[in-house]
Amino acid sequence: MSVIKNHILLSGLILISFFAKAQDPNFSQFEMNPLYYNPAYTGSVTDLRFGINYRNLWLNVPGMKFPGPLSTYNFYGDKQMTNALIGGVGFFVLQNFKGEGFLRHTAAGILYAWRMPTTNNNYSLSFGTKIYYNQLRIDYSRLVFSDQVDPERGYLNTPSAFAAQNDGKKNYLDIDAGVTFGFNIFQNKPDEQKWTNEVSFAVAHLVQPDISLNEIESRLPMKYTVMYNTSLPLSKNKFYINPKVLFEKQDDFLAYTYGFNIYVVNKHSYRSSYARSYFTKPLYLGFYFRNPKFNDRKNTKSLIFVAGHTGSFGNDTRYQIGVSYDFTMGGLNLSTWGALEISATIVLATKNASKKSTRYCPSFRSAPLSPVN
Q: What CATH number belongs to 2-360?
C-alpha cells in the first residue's frame, strides 16, 4: 500500500502544479547562475564562460532517483563582444522535472546585453534581454487517480474516468529583460582595497504567456528580481567577505535570500593580452537565510550552507565548483530532506580579443563579487 500512497501523493503534486499558478524555480547559488536571473549579466566576463547548475528540491519526495523528484538543471554560455555589438551574447538550456518526469518544462533561448561605452573602470552599466522557446509537457497515461485505487484491493489497473482535453503539450515563447549597475567605492585606493558594489533589476515573462494545459486560460505572471551584492577585503586582503541580497516576487510568491560568502586566501590577478580581472582561490564558504519576510529569523523557511573551490589550469582557464544545501524549516520541517544544489563554472581565455575591449567593455570589478568573474 505504501507504493500506492506514493503514486497518489505524486499524482497530487503533479495536479497541484497543473492547475495552480506557475512559479519559477529558484537557486540558492544565484551568483553562479547569473543569466537565469538577469540577462544583463550576459558578457559580464571578458572571456568565454560556460556554467551548469543542478538543483534537487525535497529529496525525500517519491519520484525519479535522477535527476530527482523535483529537480531543475540549467546550462549556459556567454562571451563578451568587442565589435559593434558592444556587449555580450549567450545561450541557455533549462529543464525542470516533477515526480517521475510526468510533468516536464523545457526552455532554450538566446541572450544579448548592451554595455555602456566608458573609459572609467569604476563604473559599469548593462541592459540585457532574453528570448526563449518553452515546452510544457504532462504524461497523463502515467498518472494514478483516486478512482483507480480501492481501499481493500489496492491498485485496480483500470482506466480512470479522467478525460484529457489535449495531448498534454504546450509550446510558447517568452521574453525577459534586465539592467545591472556596478560601481567601486574608495576609487582613489589601489584595486585590492576598493569596495565593489553591484545592483541589478530584472523582469521575467514580459509577454505573460498562456501556459494552460486545459481549456481554462492561465497566464504566467511576471517575475521581478532585485539583487545587490558587494565585496570588501578583510585582514589585509587575505579574506574577502561578499554579502548578498536577492529579492524575488512572482504573483503571491515572495522570497528574500540574504547572507554572505567568505573567500579564503588572497585575491589573484589574471592577465591576458587585452584585459585584467581578479578571482580568489582556493576556498569559499557561505551562509544564507531564505524567507518571505526580510530579517524574520523566527519564521525562516530555509537555512542555506554553501562551500566551494576555485582555481585555474595554467594561465588560461579559471574554474569554480560550488555545493549548497538548504535545510527546510517551518511546517515541512526536515521531513523533506531539504534541497541539494551543485554548480560549476569554467572561464576560457580568448586569444583573439581586441584591445578595444578595455575601452568599450571594461571589467569594473576590483574585488570579487563571485569567485570567478
A: 2.40.160.40
